[in-house]
Amino acid sequence: MLNKLGRTRLVEVLLVEDSPTDAILLEEAFKDTKIPNNLHIVTTGEDALAYLRHEGVHAKSLMPDLIMLDLNLPGISGQDVLKTIKSDEKLKSIPVVVLTTSKAEEDITKAYKHHANCYVTKPVGYDKLADLVYSIETFWLGIVSLRRGEK
Fold first, then answer.
1. pTM for the whole structure
2. pLDDT band at 8 (very low <50, low <70, confident <90, very high)
């Protein structure tokens, strides 16, 4: 049976976000948009890479169709996670949306140098965040043809 986006399965989204408050708000925004997806949340760069490599507790994780990545992470930075993803033959085709508080030109330039698919600054306030998530989901999960992830 097809869902409302014409897909036969839910879209897998990996959110890499260390702020518990931002993670909760983003999770609620994903639920509110009603676009069918499975949102998986990890809080560190190390955990994101373990998830993508199916290591440890993530051994049975599904490969995401879309990654939303904060840059300001403890340990391995978001920029290093992005660089690692985009230099890995098995991972580089997964779209990465950088979603961060930084408006610094240096961060934006570096993210695109590391092949981010887009760079978005987190808005202030739930309504604006929900609108942003809806726009991201509509574009990346509704309009764009994504490669189907495998395990």
1. 0.88
2. low
Place of tokens 């904060």: 70
The distance in angstroms from the start CA to the end CA of the chain is 22
Residue for token pair 């399965």: 9
Task: Compute the distance between CA of residue 17 and CA of residue 27 in angstroms, rounded to an integer.
Answer: 11
pLDDT digits (tens, 9 = 90+) for 93-139: 999 999 999 999 999 999 999 999 999 999 988 889 989 988 988 88
Of 30, 97, 40, 42, nearest to 68 (Cα)? Answer: 97
Structural domains in the chain, CATH included, are: 11-141 (3.40.50.2300)
Diameter over CA atoms, the chain: 46
Tokens of 8: 């036969």
Higher pLDDT: 54 or 145? It is: 54
Burial class (CB in 10 A: 0-12, 13-18, 19+), 111: buried
- Rounded distance, CA 28 to CA 50, Å? 25
Phi and psi, residue 147, nearest 5°: -70, 145
